[in-house]
Every structure is written in structure tokens, then in C-alpha cells.
Amino acid sequence: MRNATLTCLPGPSPFLFLLVHLFLRLLLILHGPELAGASSTCPSLCTCSNQASRVICTRQNLDQVPESISVNTRYLNLQENSIQGLDKVLRVI
Questions:
Q1: Number of separate domains in the chain
Q2: Is 29 within a domain?
Q3: Strand duo 75-77 + 47-49: pairing
Q4: What residue numbers bound the domain in which 63 lies?
Q5: What angle do CA 41, 42, 45 make, to 5 degrees?
Q6: Residues in domain LRRNT (predicted)?
Q7: Does residue 67 belong to any structural domain of this protein?
């Protein structure tokens, strides 16, 4: 029968975790508004969730796509509006 040995390597210091945690909090405090950006505001006739990654503008009688849609948008719902074309929007993209 062979004896197995278990060797434990030392893990990162708790001080290092605390230092990284404090650094990340400081970054969020100082740059949080910049990271969110003014473009993450929700258009006035729409509802948004998940930091404006979901923008829902259904049944608002819109005749054009709102201009203040966040660049972080992953889901955009414009159903049941009066939008006739996307020419202006496609020129911006």
C-alpha cells in the first residue's frame, strides 16, 4: 500500500483580495458615471432595464426611432408604432 502525500500551495493573501476589492470600488466610484455614459439614459417614451440593454418602446405612436437609445442596447422593441422607415437611423449607423 502506497502512502499519498498532499501538498498545499499557499493561496493569495487576504490582503491582496482586500486591496483589489478596494481598487475596484474606487474605480466604480470615480468612473461609474463615465462607464454608464449619457447614452445609457432611457428614451422618454420607452422603458429600459439592465442598464438600458433592453429598450421597449411599444405602442407609443412613434413616427421615428428615438435618438437617445444606448449603444449598449441588445434588445429593442418598437412594435405597434407608426415608424415608416429606417433611412435616418441607417445613415447614422
A1: 1
A2: yes
A3: unpaired
A4: 14-92
A5: 145
A6: 41-75
A7: yes
Tell if the pTM clears 0.90, that is, is over it: no
Across the chain, where does the E strand assignment appear? 47-49, 54-56, 75-77
- Judged by DSSP in three states, 24 sits in helix
What does residue 15 show for φ and ψ, rounded to 5 degrees?
-65, -40
Lookup: cell for 62 = 412613434
Using only C-alpha atoms, the chain has a radius of gyration, in whole angstroms, of 24
Amino acid symbol at 85: G
Measured in degrees and rounded to the nearest 5, phi and psi for residue 48 equal -130, 155
Q: What is the pLDDT of residues 58-82, one digit of tens each?
A: 999 999 888 888 888 899 999 999 9
**pLDDT at position 76:** 92
User: How many beta carbons lie within 10 A of that of residue 52, not counting itself?
Assistant: 22
Residue 68 CB neighbour total at 10 angstroms: 14
Give residue-wise pLDDT tens across range 20-43: 777 777 666 666 555 555 445 889
In a domain, 8, yes or no: no
- What pLDDT does residue 78 have? 92
